[in-house]
Amino acid sequence: MHIVFAASECVPFAKTGGLADVVGALPLELAKLGHEVTVYLPLYAVVRPHLTGQWKYAARSITIPFEYYNRFVGIVDGGKRNGVRYYFVDCPDLFDRQGLYGSGGGEYPNNWERFGLFCRAVLEATKLLGVPAVFHVHDWQASLIPVYLRTIYASDPLLGNVGTVLTIHNAGYQGWFPPQTTERLLFPWDLFTMDKVEHFDTFNFLKGGIVFSDMLTTVSRRYAEEIQTAEFGEKLDGVLRGRAANLHGILNGVDYTQWDPATDGYLAAHYTANVLTGKQECRTDLLHAFGLESIAPSTPVLGIVSRFAAQKGFDILAGITDELMRRDVAVIALGSGEPFYENFFREWAARYPGRVALQVRYDEALSHKVEAGSDIFLMPSRYEPGGLNQLYSLRYGTVPVVRATGGLDDTIDEWNAEQRTGTGFKFHGYAPQDFLAAIDRALAIFPNKQSWQRLMRNGMVKNYSWTQPARQYVEVYTEAVKRRG
Ligand code: ADP
Ligand code: GLC
């Protein structure tokens, strides 16, 4: 089967979060299963260093019409890597900038145009470069592909019958724009109704994708249920309930060629579930990288790697900072994002120098070092569709303390001291004291080396590879194709 992926992020080209990891890894696994996979991405400034030598254009000057002007895009051929073909939508006016979605000051105001153009350019490009059996589109940025297909392109002889699958990685980001977006993107006004893209008087990209895709998936079973409730649905729960029969939760996998302490090139030493000794060296290396050399070997290191966003639950961490520091712990955080949370971490680190350390930036190498060198990993998310860091933590023997939501609930089991089962510690209420109680349960086991190593190993031997999820996606693609056939 030929599957075209359209997404706004993909490892190794452009990444702000887990979406990039998924769009980087799933196509490779599908290619291994014998499928033809093509990935389309915008040609951002950060993509340029990956395109060495002279650019090879697969297509030039594709016309994308807007309300009273046209734009012309090129499709740069990124070549085949590990059996997967990459194409980049080149429109320097829109994509050749520093951020993917915005700059320090916020989102780019013309994101409707950037991602509207991206979606239409992908459709036009496939007519020249290969029409797939199914489009697999990701998040709001690619959500207009199914909308275009079932409206403006409905009678296109090449594209009219292509199936569509939308994966919702995060319902919290929907792409809300003014009603006029409808005509700016040349859609008919009858699209701007409650049962289509209209949402509280905005033009909502993600809602359009949900309404018009043949099949929907999200990145854990639990989140597939949660988004159908008012608490987690981000006001799309009604629409999602309406499509419940076609909505599947497929858990994210891990690319163990990138994330395994036995081979990870970013680490000071390697280790496995059988031979753990290298982890100590990774811890020393990490403490050095964060200037916490004086932390005693008996003191557990609590690690965080995260986008700093409300989703990630740092409000409840803010409620326990002083109380937590009465315990014998060190805290290491790597992240960036909303200034409010950056400042929270900065203030916390300033109050506890030598015990709490922070680096505010995006740093691939350091993220691997934090996974390997910490003893405990904290993910108190308010909501978490899938979550990859808890899966990385498991493999790195870094015991996760997580809130029981979305993919965190699906993948982490509470430690059971009698049966010696479980992989971490989990709390339910979104409350500082519940979080602290879960950390305390972890801290109570930590000094008992035998139990702790058992707990580490329980996680390290878990297998969250992409093999199984890739097969589940193929079933969903097959169903989408059938619907069109
Ligand atoms: P989300 O996609 O919501 O951010 P995930 O847990 O699915 O959450 O994925 C986050 C991904 O982004 C992981 O690969 C993580 O290592 C990476 N990441 C997040 N923040 C940083 C950072 N500051 N530096 C490096 N990697 C980061
Ligand atoms: C989103 C979610 C995260 C998920 C990732 C990849 O960014 O916040 O939970 O793991 O997408 O699916």
Keywords:
globular, Rossmann fold, binds adenosine-5'-diphosphate, alpha/beta, single chain, 2 domains, binds alpha-D-glucopyranose, 485 residues, 18 helices
Question: Any overview of this molecule?
Answer:
By secondary structure, this protein is of the alpha/beta class. It has two domains: 2-253 and 466-484, Glycogen Phosphorylase B (Rossmann fold, 3-Layer(aba) Sandwich); 277-460, Glycogen Phosphorylase B (Rossmann fold, 3-Layer(aba) Sandwich), CATH 3.40.50.2000. It has 18 helices and 20 strands. Helix 1 crosses helix 18 (467-484) and helix 9 crosses helix 13. The protein is globular and about 65 Å long. It starts with a strand and ends with a helix. Residues 17-19, 21, 305-307, 334-336, 362-364, 367, 386-389 line the site of adenosine-5'-diphosphate.
How would you summarize this macromolecular structure in one to three sentences?
The protein has 18 helices and 20 strands. By secondary structure, the protein is an alpha/beta fold.
Instruction: Please tell me how large the radius of gyration is.
Output: 23 Å
* CATH architectural label of the largest domain: 3-Layer(aba) Sandwich
Number of helical elements: 18
What low-confidence regions span 5 or more consecutive residues with pLDDT below 50? none
Q: What small ligands are held by the chains?
A: adenosine-5'-diphosphate, alpha-D-glucopyranose
Cα(first) to Cα(last) distance is: 14 Å
**What is the C-level CATH assignment of the largest domain?**
Alpha Beta
Helix content: 25-40%
When the domains are counted, the total is: 2
Which band does the percent of strand residues land in?
15-25%
- Secondary structure tally: strands: 20
Structural class: alpha/beta
